[in-house]
């Protein structure tokens, strides 16, 4: 980073700000789902939205961590590489993004009905 610490780079500050904003949005969605669950409401839609959003944010954060680490981030013996691989699996296990999107579309009336 041109003889500076990585954290002193303005572009890094901007990206960290974006990622923090995405994390807070995901957290707010999660809190809304928990509140509805505590109130005894059906949370299938919100739970699907939470899983979709949280896994996508986790993948984005881990991807940027690998990017920030440069070549070392790609090395399989680093924590960021392990996090990256684990977060990729998170969007597959427990229902892929496409399954979550199908549930969301169906429960909001956007899923095409069979003829």
What does this structure look like?
Helices cover 71% and strands 0% of the residues. It is mainly α and 115 residues long. It is elongated, with a radius of gyration of 18 Å.
Index terms:
115 residues; elongated; 5 helices; mainly alpha
Number of DSSP helical runs: 5
Structural class: mainly alpha
Gyration radius over CA: 18 Å
Shape: elongated
The unreliable regions are: none
Q: What is the tally of beta strands?
A: 0
**How far is the N terminus from the C terminus?**
58 Å
For the largest beta-sheet, the strand count, sense and barrel status come to: none
Helix-strand sequence: HHHHH
Tell me the fraction of residues in β-strands, as a range. Answer: under 5%
Mean pLDDT level: 90
Helix content estimate: over 70%
Reconstruct the topology from this structure:
Elements: H1 10-38, H2 44-69, H3 71-74, H4 79-90, H5 97-107
Helix pairs in contact: 1-2, 2-4, 2-5
